[in-house]
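B., you asked whether I could sanity-check this one before it goes into the benchmark set. Here's the sequence:
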Amino acid sequence: MNSTVAQRSSPLVVLELLKPITWFPPMWALGCGVVSSGVSPGQRWPLIAAGVVLAGPMVCGTSQAVNDWYDRHVDAINEPERPIPSGRIPGSWGLYIAVIWTALSLLVATLLGTWGFLAAVVGLVLAWVYSAPPIRLKQNGWWGNAACGLCYEGLPWFTGAAVMSASSPDLRIVLIALLYSIGAHGIMTLNDFKSVEGDKRMGIDSLPVLLGVGNAARFACLVMAAPQAAVVALLLSWQRPFHAGAVGVLLVAQFFLMAHFLGSPRERAPWYNGTGISCYVVGMLVSAFALAAIRAA
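And here's what the prediction gave me:
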């Protein structure tokens, strides 16, 4: 790499490509998995730290690099200031970084046992097929958002629980993690409102393109709310009324926030991401504590 390229592809630019702001959801979900296992951390702190690094900077970072490489043409329309379309990561270096980060992610995953490694493999496969042709799941908002929801919530939660128990997690843990993954399908739709014009021009069938902005916003709210209502019902059936009540209160708060969001979805999607989604992720942690209490009972 010549000096000009090296200067343009500085570590800070690479970090921008990997989008640290996107790492929080899978890292949080992994933490919820650790809590939900009900297992005392004991001497497992190094494994927990490795899992957090794997979920956020590694696997999620890989997905961002892969996505930006294969989205460089649509990004040139919607967000031309991004590292690849702006030329700050030149040539094929966006692809090289994605491949290198995939290999490093697999290396870190070997530290987490069989189930943790397998979950990482599934996450990395989804990261590539989400963005890369010929499958390119993101071409369709139904499949693409489902893959993202699973990678951001379900798989990290499963990984955290698997690392703690050194085995496949309890089925109740898997069920709650799956429900929050389904809810994340709606969260992913929030990110599509900013790029409707570019998606239409590039033939990407995001839900705002397929359903229209208003219908997509209402569907996203339904998909976020319904799984949480199911979580409340399950926690009640598992004799955890306090935890169920807390998740229910957080859900009611989201209803009020959703009403404001639906008044102007495109403009208020970032606002809802910072308010309603905060209630969503707090509910995840409450549910994780409920699962831990069930296992301890």
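One thing to flag: The two ends are 59 Å apart (CA to CA). Otherwise nothing jumped out at me.
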